[in-house]
Amino acid sequence: MDENLFKQRTKQLALRFIEIVDALPKNRTADIIGRQLIRSGTSIGANYRAACRGKSTTDVIAKLRIVEEEADESAYWMELLVESGLLPEARLSELLRETNEIIAMTVASIRTLQKRSPFNRQSKIENLK
């Protein structure tokens, strides 16, 4: 995926998390989960932008792993919102789907970079042949 398009998708995702959290009921549990979701959900795009400025392949991979972790954590908080009855599944299904797509694309990017990395053990073996 194009870097700028992925930046836009992750920013739109963050804005949608903000919208969802603002719609949560006003109670202690929703407030705590909402704060966690805002933190993890908005950091996805911020960390992707940092990855785009990585100084080496290893640095980019490390930053993309953070993107993966934060997106997975966001999915967890959304699952808790549904399973606790704070929001109906229908309200979060599209957002959860988009989050899972971002996770999948991030993992694919990490794998591609690892294969290309000069530090990849398999690459070193193939270069010796």
List keywords for this structure.
129 residues, mainly alpha, de novo design (two linked rop proteins), 0% strand
Describe the structure.
The protein is mainly α and 129 residues long. The protein has one domain: 23S rRNA-intervening sequence (de novo design (two linked rop proteins)). It has five helices and no strands. Helix 1 runs antiparallel to helix 2 and helix 1 packs antiparallel against helix 4. The two termini are 33 Å apart.
Q: Gist?
A:
The protein has helices spanning 3-22, 28-52, 57-83, 89-116, 121-128.
Main sheet properties? none
Integer tally of domains: 1
Pairing-aware structural class of the strands and helices?
mainly alpha
CATH domain topology: de novo design (two linked rop proteins)
Distance between the termini: 33 Å
The arrangement of helices and strands along the chain is HHHHH
Under the CATH scheme, which class? Mainly Alpha
Fraction of residues in helix: over 70%
Q: Total number of helical segments? A: 5
Q: What is the overall shape?
A: elongated
Question: In CATH terms, what is the architecture?
Answer: Up-down Bundle
Tell me, rounded to a whole number, the average pLDDT: 93
In percent terms, what proportion of residues is strand? under 5%
CATH H-level name... which superfamily?
23S rRNA-intervening sequence
Report the strand count. 0
Unreliable stretches, pLDDT < 50, 5 or more residues? none
Question: What secondary-structure arrangement, pairings included, does this model have?
Answer:
Blueprint: H1 3-22, H2 28-52, H3 57-83, H4 89-116, H5 121-128
Helix pairs in contact: 1-2, 1-4, 2-3, 3-4
